[in-house]
Amino acid sequence: MAAAAATAASLFRVVIRRETTTSPLAGKKHRSSVRIPRFAVSVDRPPAPTSAVTTSPEKTNPVVKREEEGERAVDAKVKEEEEESKNRSVFSGMKRFLEESKVIIDEEKENGGGGAPRWFSPPDTVDCSGSWQMEDPPVLLYLPGIDGVGLGLTLHHQKLGRIFDISCMHIPVADRTPFTDLMKIVESRVKSEHQRSPRKPIYLVGESLGACLALAVAARNPDIDLVLILANPATSFSRSQLQLLIPLMEVLPDPLSLGLPELQSLMPGDSERMELGNLLKGLPLQNTTKELMEDFINFSPSLPALADILPKETLLWKLKLLRSASAYANSRLHAVKAQTLILSSEKDELLPSKEEGERLRKLLANSELRKFADSGHFLFLEGNIDLVTVIKGTSFYRRGKKHDYVSDYIPPTPTEFKEVLESYRLLNILTSPVMLSTLEDGTIVKGLAGLPSEGPVIYVGYHMLLGIELGPLVSRILTERDILVRGIAHPLMFRRNDAGLLPDLASFDSFRVMGAVPVAATNLFKLLSSKSHILLYPGGMREALHRKGEEYKLFWPEQSEFVRMAARFGAKIVPFGTVGEDDLAEVVLDYDDLVNIPLFKSLIEKLTAESIPLRTDATGEVANQQVHMPAFLPKVPGRFYYYFGKPIETEGRRHVLKDREKSNELYLQVKSEVEKCLAYLKEKRESDPYRNIVPRLLYKAEHGFDAEVPTFEI
Questions:
Q1: Do residue 225 and residue 359 come from a single domain?
Q2: CATH code at 304?
Q3: What is the Cα–Cα distance from 326 to 253, expressed in whole angstroms?
Q4: Is 43 inside a domain boundary?
């Protein structure tokens, strides 16, 4: 199964890292129902349909040209996205928040105080020009933090507005509504939305105070389908230094002044605050000094709005409100059954959010935790945080009772894809992958011109050690052919029997962003029915965690697991082989060795117990699904080779559905073709003058670092 081995790789930390001012209380968006493109690579707009590529072996491979055009198109879109968010600098999120808040506060002053807490729809989610909107989106209610303005998601409104129906809560500066009454306001809106759409979830996104409101409402309404997204919850208030401010604030003189330390505590993240501190101290910052100074100059006029948002009396009230909110929410955590995503900033200077995230994850049964190492308290105002990407990566987006990995899937944006591609940059440099494919007439060509343009298609192949071939394979197909391949993955990338030794689920967020789905017959059925391109490894974990001397040996089930379903939808089956793991590393301690060492045997048993068991009724080697990490020695890097065989048609072969013998014949044919692909590559790479990394580096030094390195003659 696709990406099963990425699981094992992550055991030893596979690291894949990661917006106009009008009156924000006005405006109600108008939605259009547009279906998301199946192979879209952009959340902003669908790409042009993929066209067939014809390749002549006598001429320069046009796929190379197509790949360059594809890269240029992606780069152009990335630049467009970067242009849209170019103001996301050190101060931009806070600056924008303060500017928009000032508009609201000025209006409240003109109207004599602002009135009672109320809901508004952000006007900057209205822009539907050139953008798709998710069909029948769920409601998202934003619950503000200590500021109460309701603009904490200002950097995310446009992207969130494409997949949610957003409303934000506004608590006027002069308002003194107690926590329990604020909770009833939210609860009333939740019940109203639930009555209107009882089959759809309701999202509650809360920061600090808002997170306590979300938890309280969820605890009181366990029968309503709620999804909570909590950023730095104030449930930790009793353990924070903020509580010490209450007696201090009562004796502070007016006006309350904000000095540099307080300003820095409001800045987006630790690294950015360090840069600001260095800047103000006059320390050199290499190439960033000019930009930071310009940012600070542009930001400075917005500072007076801080005192307007939180004057002394309001700040004192809000601190007391946090105290009561924290006590109320903590006393009812046991009653919270809602699906919950906790977002914790590890550099939060206002609340001990790092420790609180871990505590809540253990107390809330249906929860997941994501940590942000360099982020401050106001997480959503940081330019490097994309809430939509976080929701996609955690598979928290759904429009029904359960998340549907096909209908609820949102394809990666160019920026998201670029980040994933960058994580494989070193591997691509070290291995210079060679891609071959087969045209309909049987001609083998360099590039991926032989891959079918239209789905459904199932790519069936060999899983290299630790699934290390995955990144180059998926990214190259998307870059060169504009085809998003959905990998069938091991379920431990999505859920666990228990938390413990296995890598954190966050390790696999990028795989989910790129379309990985847990292995299940229903998911394969849905993907085929939607004419998707699917990546499947019948050998799964057993193949990717193979023993010493088992390179390029297939460990497939005795009976077909996919042929009859492929025939039902007339899907094309593309057999492929991947070679090169033995030129990158050598296994020195495999499962058979490790299981004989008591310490490692116990570790393997614990890891396997945490994982979701697969193929429990299978026989033979493929049934050996023990989770472990083989020890290996790296080699001087060789080269990766990929060969996609001639597509096998199942259209018109529906007899395979009922005839087990015929389906088994087709299954064995696919397996045989994969073995032929492997044999072909193993033989041909012997004549590749650039198989070793040294001649490849010399070639790049002469022709340019981005030059495509030649390979063997076909």
A1: yes
A2: 3.40.50.1820
A3: 27
A4: no
Tokens of 657: 């559905």
Q: What ranges in 169-242 are assigned the alpha helix state H?
A: 179-196, 209-220
Do 120 and 209 lie in a common domain? Answer: yes
- Among residues 382, 416, 447, the one where a domain terminates is 382
pLDDT in tens, 363-379: 999 999 999 999 999 99
Residues 364 and 246 reside in one and the same domain: yes
Predicted TM-score (pTM) above 0.70: yes
Q: Mention every residue, 6+ apart, whose C-beta is less than 8 A from residue 381.
A: 93, 94, 97, 152, 154, 155, 268
* pLDDT of amino acid 654: 78
Tokens 């509504």 correspond to what residue? 177
Are residues 142 and 157 in contact, defined by beta-carbon separation less than 8 angstroms? no
Helix (H) or strand (E) run with residue 323 in it: helix 312-330
Q: Which domain holds residue 636?
A: 4-16+407-497+504-703
Whether 440 and 378 map to the same domain: the answer is no
Of 524, 516, 411, 520, nearest in space to 467 by CA: 516
What gap in Å lies between CA 680 and CA 678, rounded to an integer? 5
CB neighbours of residue 402 within 10 Å: 10
How far apart, in Å, are the Cα atoms of 146 and each of 105, 212, 213, 242, 325?
15, 11, 12, 12, 11
Max Cα separation, the chain?
88
Strand arrangement of the beta sheet that strand 533-536 belongs to:
444-446, 434-438, 641-644, 572-579, 457-461, 533-536, 485-489, 517-518
pLDDT in tens, 592-644: 999 999 999 999 888 888 877 766 566 666 666 788 889 999 999 999 999 99
User: Residue 526, CB half-sphere, CA atoms under 13 Å: how many?
Assistant: 16
Per-residue pLDDT tens digits for 284-316 = 444 444 444 444 444 444 455 666 788 888 888
- List the one residue out of 149, 566, 37 whose CA is nearest residue 380: 149
